[in-house]
Design brief:
With 315 residues, this protein is of the alpha/beta class. The protein has 9 helices and 14 strands.
Length: 315
């Protein structure tokens, strides 16, 4: 059974956050809301695209180094995964972590999580699989208690890059507080040529555009809104100052939309900022990890220097 701690997207939280984001001076919606059932499937489709280099690059790094990661103390206890998605990368590690007894995937996308957890259960019958449908930016103290076991936290995908720098350090700090002696394996995307980044976040097949636009469809579905999808377009923008790719939904004309009974006005060219995807140098990520109370043990990258997997120790 999937544990809901606390219930993930009670309509009220979604409604409150969407309305406060759309009525702010600069319209912004947290990227965590991109992941309903449809969004999670679209994300999986993105990971298969030639243009989207992070998934295949991280998978190759994990595969190459998994014997080394299997020597981390936590692998003899419990693995807690943040933003586990399909658990495809996990499967690769679980094959090497033969002494692991508990796997706790945490994800906001409840149905997707349930399906992925069942698959892991079938593949590793002796592992206790405890899926937790939760928003990991909320107090994690409410997680089901782990038995007294060493813990390895797995945080792949460069999902850490979807947070503002200060929030990322705070999130790492919260994790360290509730899992004080743990080690972490965390995937981090690196800065690279702008053309490569824009192609990855505005792919020719339009899957990323569909992923971004699904947010408006979700708001229509769940909040009875009347967004006209043809009047908003996907934009991927490189923000060099912040070293991040930003996703926006740009209004193509002056228009008003009704969201949960509230009228929201858009000017032509105005955007809703829907995601940040930070690209960190070693120096920048080490700074964030240290601020969150973690020491860098090791870093592994592909030969082209596209992506890094760090191992961290809570201090
Ligand atoms: N780890 C997978 C999936 C990455 S996509 C991979 O590397 O391919 C990001 C995942 O994090 C999604 O499954 C999404 O549902 C989840 N997620 C995003 N924000 C979250 C939050 N605040 N709390 C819990 N899960 C979150
Ligand atoms: C999950 N996250 C790290 C992805 C990223 O690359 O920032 C989400 C994504 N957004 C557009 N494409 C993929």
């Amino acid at each position: 059974m999937t544990k809901h701690v606390p219930p993930v997207s009670p309509d009220k939280t979604f409604r409150t956050e969407i309305l406060s984001g759309l009525t702010a001076g600069r319209k912004t919606i947290s990227s965590k809301w991109l992941y309903d059932d449809v969004g999670s499937h679209l994300f999986e489709a993105i990971t298969e695209l030639d243009a989207y280099y992070p998934t295949r690059t991280e998978l190759a790094i994990l595969e190459q180094n998994r014997r080394k990661y299997a020597r981390l103390p936590g692998t003899r206890g419990a693995m807690v995964e943040l933003g586990s998605g399909s658990s495809r990368k996990t499967d690769l590690l679980l094959g090497a972590f033969s002494d692991l007894s508990v796997y706790m995937p945490i994800d906001i996308s409840a149905n997707h999580l349930k399906t992925a957890a069942e698959k892991v259960r079938r593949a590793y019958p002796s592992l206790a699989v405890i899926p937790v449908a939760a928003d990991f930016t909320q107090p994690l103290g409410q997680l089901p208690l782990l038995p007294e076991l060493p813990v390895v936290v797995f945080f792949p995908g460069s999902t850490i890059g979807n947070f503002e720098k200060a929030e990322a350090a705070q999130l790492l700090g919260n994790i360290r507080k509730i899992m004080p002696e743990s080690t972490m394996i965390v995937g981090v995307d690196r800065p690279k040529a702008e053309e490569v980044l824009i192609e990855a976040y505005d792919d020719p097949a339009g899957i990323t555009a569909a992923f971004n636009q699904n947010l408006l469809q979700r708001i229509n579905r769940e909040l009875g809104a009347d967004f006209d999808l043809a009047s908003f377009t996907h934009r991927a923008v490189w923000n060099g100052l912040e070293s991040r790719v930003e996703m926006h939904l740009e209004s193509l004309r002056d228009q008003s939309v009704s969201v949960a009974g509230t009228r929201i006005d858009f000017a032509a060219g105005e955007t809703v900022h829907t995601e940040n995807s930070h690209k960190y140098s070693e120096e920048a990520f080490t700074g964030i990890a240290n601020e969150g109370g973690w020491r860098v043990l090791d870093r592994d990258s592909d030969k082209d220097g596209l992506f890094s997997v760090y191992t961290l120790q809570a201090v």
